[in-house]
Amino acid sequence: MPFEALDPLLHSQLRLAVMSLLISVESADFVYIKEQTGATAGNLSVQIDKLSSAGYISVEKKFEGKKPKTTCKITQTGVDAFENYVKNIQQYLKP
Amino acid sequence: MPFEALDPLLHSQLRLAVMSLLISVESADFVYIKEQTGATAGNLSVQIDKLSSAGYISVEKKFEGKKPKTTCKITQTGVDAFENYVKNIQQYLKP
DNA sequence: TAAAGTAGTTTATATTATAAACCAAATGAA
DNA sequence: TTCATTTGGTTTATAATATAAACTACTTTA
């Protein structure tokens, strides 16, 4: 089959954007990701949970002074999955 | 915003595969597309309808001898949309 | 003539994406 | 002080989607 299946967890606009951000930085916090992606907080919260449950990212929640702070970091599993997704979707993009 | 919105009509594995096939051929029939994509007939039928309704492809149904034959062809609108989608998703893929 | 194959379409269902509503604490203005 | 607003999220509800299963209609083959 010329078309490899695309990882459904990554074939989602917002989750792909989150992974794309995280792959090029050490870590990023919730607010920054929200700004960069333009997502609503609710949507972002849900999608971060999914990426976290899959082990694609790790999430740390702490308090900075008096404000909560959620920090995300891509895992090796996540890097592998992202690279695999990129490889697979390329087949669809250049015919 | 670094991430452009992805055309939801094209951000679907099967519809993207169909468009990817059609962009490099004059036309293709239902059975061929089904084989190449590995899709079920029902799913393919639905997705072809959606691409057709959006004007991304044109669909001709005729009889070849006694068998029905559905032939699909990408339109200029479809070519433009596909190229735009490719341009936009590239932003997500190379960070 | 009954079973199986071809070329699809329609319908039902399970999953998804997304927004709306909500919560708790902190800050700001009157 | 007290009431509204902002911050940083989470939870819940809903609308949209993808997909498979069931079905139709006709043809071929045993």
Automatic annotation (TrEMBL), chains A, B:
<feature type="domain" description="Winged helix DNA-binding">
    <location>
        <begin position="14"/>
        <end position="93"/>
    </location>
</feature>
<dbReference type="Pfam" id="PF13601">
    <property type="entry name" value="HTH_34"/>
</dbReference>
<dbReference type="InterPro" id="IPR036388">
    <property type="entry name" value="WH-like_DNA-bd_sf"/>
</dbReference>
<dbReference type="InterPro" id="IPR036390">
    <property type="entry name" value="WH_DNA-bd_sf"/>
</dbReference>
<dbReference type="InterPro" id="IPR027395">
    <property type="entry name" value="WH_DNA-bd_dom"/>
</dbReference>
<protein>
    <submittedName>
        <fullName>Transcriptional regulator</fullName>
    </submittedName>
</protein>
